Amino acid sequence: MTRNRFLLGIVLALLVFQILFSVYYSTQIIDANLRYSTLQKKYNDLNVDNQQLEVQYTQKFSVSGQKAF
Amino acid sequence: MDKKRSKFLLIVIYLCFLAVLARLFYWQVIKGSQLHEQAIAQIYKLEKILPRQGQILSSDGYPLSLDYSYYRLALYKPNFQTDLDTILQEITNIKPEFATQNAKLLEKFREPNQKWLEFLGEFTTSEKNQLATISGTNFQARQKRYYPEGTLAIDLILGLERFYKRQLSGQVGFKRNVIDATGSQLLTKKNWQKSEIDGQDIPTSLHRQVQYLVEHTLKQGLVTYQADSASAIILEPKSGQILAMASVEASPSAFFKVKNITHLFEPGSIFKPLVMTAALDSGAINSNWICTRCNQARIIGEDSINNWDKQFHPDSSLKDIITNSDNIGMSYIISHLGLDKFLDYYKKLKLNQKTGVELPGESVSPLKNYWPEIDLATAAFGQGIALNQLQMLQAFNSIANDGLLVNAHLNTNHQSQSSRVFSEKSTNTMKEILEYAVDHSPVAKLKSNDMGPVCAKSGTAQVAVAGKYSDNTIGSYIGFYPCINPKYTMIVTIFSAQTSQWGSSTAAPIWFELASHLNRLL
User: What average pLDDT does range B390-406 have in this prediction?
Assistant: First the structure.
């Protein structure tokens, strides 16, 4: 009887552990995914900003004074 | 009764089980491959990664063409949480020209069955981030080619872009991501990526200030001399690097072309120094040679060779022949040189082949096989042969470069290839002759006071139309400065000028005008 209770306790503990483990790591994975998406967007934005800054630089130092196209 | 009921229940369960099995068979076996594809399409997203295209760089490292990224707005009605007018108001607050720019598209978007539409207009990152919070807006990054100097050297830049298309483009990359139901990327080992390879930059020898000066001066010349078109090229003599190359037309064509290499013309008298140097170099004549038969026109068969001013110059020295641009004297010099040697030098000067400049569409005239005496005689003053402007300048540059011919090129990564055509002694003699000719001809007054010795030659050729020479002429001026250790070699050509038919009156003033500024820039 005691042994059955003991085994039941282990099963329940493992179940709780599995649930907690899943919850914890799935939260971590979701966070990592979100962080990745945000950084990816930032990277793309910075890329675009970089090219626009390059364009501003060229406009500043153009010798022809013509309207670029 | 109970047994019957339980049997019945068992049969129902079996039937249900069979039905499920049948359905599973249908989904997994019959429709399996189709659903597998759909599942893959839902789970995986294949994206192209566009590489950064290479830039065309000027001699000072300034990008003459580069990629420019911006965002384009698309609207999706089903995701709207407010009405279209409110959304448009918010867009207009940030981009006032949006509504007018997209008047027609907006009209289309208001139609009930139009759920999605992409609009015109370029949005910056900050504008995109402000508007991205509105439901129903969607921004896509777009790229386009940008030319910061406007039309400056545009034909050359577009030509270089066509020539170096593969190097500039780079390689497109691919990314396969696992996505969730919302389309967001999931980080798993199943993600796969082949990175893009950015395009290479092409560094050129184009000098922006000089290019601007050349284009500006040619445009002025076009108006002053009422010409159809004008072209010029400036080379760095030792390396053969092209510092500037331009062609302007009174009625510009819509098509891309670099007339300096696509258009063939008879060089006229600017060809004389090459023939004379070849004669000196081969030993056919020496520097003390005198034309004893220059007191009359030269008769060859039914043809006669005369001078441009119908004057005769008896006992002309080589300096006199170049100064007076004496066709008769030159016809005797080429006779001394002989056809075989003339053709040999012609080939050594690479006048029978393309210069190989990194631009598409270069024209070259094949060397003819049949050379009657009159054709050889007229070739001495650049008639009956056709060259493009760059070929002519590349060949003439060998005199500036002490007899070494270097390939004209734009890409500074190219190793200059050189081959000896003339001895240093013969080019030095030619330099003395050219310097003398400039100082003793009317163009001498065009030299600015601070200019040292100039080695140059003018030339005029009639334009051949349907096999006959017309009244229109092509005036050229070619030369280098200073005569010793020159900084540049330059050619200016004016096509069909109305104010004067002579190259010394049209191309030469432009040449000296450019030269007066070049001394400060180079």
Answer: 97
| Final residue before a domain boundary, out of B147, B167, B190 | B147
Q: How far is B36 from chain A (nearest CA, A)?
A: 25
pLDDT at residue number B406: 97
**Residue B109: which domain range?**
68-147
The domain spanning residue B132 has which CATH number?
A: 3.90.1310.10
CA B160 to chain centre: 5
Total domains in the fold of chain B: 2
| pLDDT over 90 (residue B341) | yes
> What's chain B's average pLDDT?
92
Residue B199 has pLDDT above 90, yes or no: yes
- Is the separation of the CB atoms in B109 and B80 below 8 Å? no
Kindly determine whether residue A67 and residue B152, on different chains, have CB atoms separated by under 8 Å. no
> What is the pLDDT averaged over residues A11-36?
92
Residues of A in contact with B208 (CB under 8 A): 63-64
Residue B81 lies in a domain: yes
Please indicate, yes or no, whether residues B292 and B421 belong to a single structural domain of this protein.
yes
Token couple for B504: 């010394």
- Which residues in chain B are closer than 8 Å to A66, comparing Cβ atoms? 149-152
Cβ-in-10-Å burial (0-12, 13-18, 19+) of B270 comes to buried
- Interface TM-score (ipTM) > 0.85: no
Q: Tell me the residues of chain A between 1 and 60 that have a Cβ less than 8 Å away from chain B.
A: 29, 32-34, 36-37, 40, 44-45, 47-49, 51-52, 54-55, 58-59
Vertex B63, ends B59 and B68: CA angle to 5°? 170
CATH code for the domain of B420 = 3.40.710.10
